[in-house]
Each structure stands twice: as C-alpha cells, then as structure tokens.
C-alpha cells in the first residue's frame, strides 16, 4: 500500500486494477479499514490519499464522507464506495462491493 498525493496519484494507478483510498488522520473507521486494505493490497494495488491534502480532488470525485474507496481499471474510474461502515467490512465484502 502506497500513500500518494493529488499530484502523483494518476501516475501510480495507471496499469491494471487499483483502489484509491481517501482517508482522514484520526478517523476511526479509516483506521479500522487499514487492516483490510493491507489484505486487499495482496490482490490489487491499493493507494492511500489524505483527504485534507487533496480537498479539490475529493470534491471532484464527490467524496462526502471517509473512508472512501475508488476502483480504477487501467487508469479509468470505475466505481466508488464510501462511508463509516467500510471500517467494519472484511476483504471479501469490499471485493464484492467494488466488483473486483
């Protein structure tokens, strides 16, 4: 899992499937989701971006709550899931919701 910025995230997510995780430091559901994201990173590249460092980008993606996960395929936006309940989901549930 790699932390990216608003300036380099496009370079990182370019090939294959990738998941971009918008998070906020101190956000409990974001912290709870970390273990699952490490497991998910074994099958798909996971990148993290601090929402406070990328407010305009978050707004452009319609991020209204964190954590948020966005699935990309070959650099193209596919779908997004978000909300505090993500912190309680297991890897398999996230795979199903993102349709990985």
Automatic annotation (TrEMBL):
InterPro entries in the cross-refs: Thioredoxin-like_sf, Thioredoxin_domain
Recorded superkingdom: Bacteria
Coiled-coil regions listed in the entry: none
Alphabetical list of Pfam families matching this protein: Thioredoxin (PF00085)
Protein name per its UniProtKB record: Thioredoxin
Cited CDD domains: TRX_family
All copies of domain Thioredoxin, residue ranges: 2-86
